[in-house]
Amino acid sequence: MKKIFLLFITTGFAATALVSCNKLDQQPRSYITSDQFYKTQSDAVAAVTAVYSELTSDGTEQPLYGREINFLADMTTDDLSAGPSAINPNVRALSSITYTAADDRVDVVWRQLYTGIARANIAVDKIPAIQFDTTQRARLVREAKFLRALFYFDLVRFWGDVPLVIHTPASAANLSSLNTNRSPAAAVYAQIISDLTDAQNLPASYSGADIGRATGGAAKALLAKVYLTQKDWKDAAEKANEVITGPYGYGLFTNYADVFNPAAKNGIEHIFSAQISSNGGLGNSSTLMAASYVGFKGNVPADIPADSGVYKIFSNSDTRKSVTFYTSLINPATGSSFTFPTFYFGKYVDRAELLTPTQSNINFPILRFADVLLIYAEASNEQNGPTSDAYDAINRVRNRAQTESLPATLSQSDFRDSIYVERRREFVQEAQRWFDLVRTGQLVQQVQKVATKTNVSTTNYLFPVPASEISTNPGLTQNPGYN
């Protein structure tokens, strides 16, 4: 069977059983429909929990937001490269921009995103028919829509036209109803906007065990980012401003380090984060710490700065520099400082877990308030030049880092360039750089400056559709420049 058909049937809170077959017109010997599940309120909650879990857990691979997305969105840029301990040749190919459609990391990200979408589709389709509190029922559906929009937003940016599937078939006989051909990117964006428009009605905040769920503010922040990517400056600025001035209570941490402080999780700046805990296994885990830090041995980590350029964009007074990188750490076992031979990435190095580098309690920030401020500044500048409000937005980010305000005499072009540099300083290793370089048309110009990445070309403005998907689904076409 076509792989994407199997994915949408077998993924979710209640897995259904299929017997593999060689021809599409063959029927499986056994089929358990999802109508046999999702009957109670607890079923509905579990269905949405299953969607959230795809952010941070995968039974066979490293988590999406906790490792895999960084391979595509950071490893292929001028920020990050594969260190000597990155032994997977597919990771090294991403680092050197020599990857192909057979790259296993590209395949994994595609699969993880569609797994999340499949689970979200089940929740959106099944929860409305379950009889329980109408307010919670509507909320759960909107949370699933928010997550589906996030997954599709990643897909359409990485691959362009992608299969758009928003319903799970009720039976095996309806497998052929799934559209597994590539839908135009415009149609995918329309679905993303539709889902997020509804998700804006989510609560402004949560308490207790619900902290960390998607909020109305998160939906608006993601919508602002979607509009920015589409160069819809007016709507991007308006939506970002709704987040800035709305009833959500967002702000910047006084101390930039608190963005990555396990004790400050889901704080004032965290609009939406992948919830990480150090339990490992199939729990909400991350392997970014292990990739950034190998203990007090002087060994080179799996993830290293692409070159000195990413380090030199920070002034010594910029408080983000000592958070983004480390050159020395205190060994908890000895109490002495260990100095490393050069600078390495530090955002996901949990100082409380230095003796167990496979553990981390640091959440992965997917949307934070600093991003919304910079979205507003950029969109406002593109519409009207550097207005006072645009200056205020970017200067809030700069001043928090103890960097001086921008001069008030910049041209629109100079202000634009300042925003691009500020985004790079603010979001190193947060799976933002590739997306920013692509949407601003700077990918080739910037990445080719790194000596080990001169293979970059306009082909790399999209990733290849995984060869394994095309081999099982001839209806899929490949992106230009890939075999």
In the sheet with the most strands, the strands line up as 1-3
Percent of residues in helices: 40-55%
Taking all residues together, what is the mean pLDDT?
90
Strand content: 5-15%
Main structural class: mainly alpha
Number of helices: 18
Rg, alpha carbons? 22 Å
The overall strand count is 6
Largest sheet: 2 strands, antiparallel
The residue ranges in which pLDDT falls below 50 over 5 or more consecutive positions are 8-32, 171-177
What does the overall shape look like?
Answer: globular
Distance between the first and last residues' Cα = 23 Å
Strand-and-helix sequence, N→C? HHHEHHHHHHEHEHHEEEHHHHHH
Walk me through what this model shows.
It is a single chain. Strand 4 (325-330) and strand 5 form a beta hairpin. The longest helix is centred in the N-terminal third of the chain and has 26 residues, at 134-159. The protein is 43% helix and 6% strand. The protein starts with a helix and ends in an 11-residue tail after the last helix. The chain contains 18 helices and six strands.
In short:
The chain is mostly helical and 483 residues long. The protein has 18 helices and six strands. Helix content is 43%, strand content 6%.
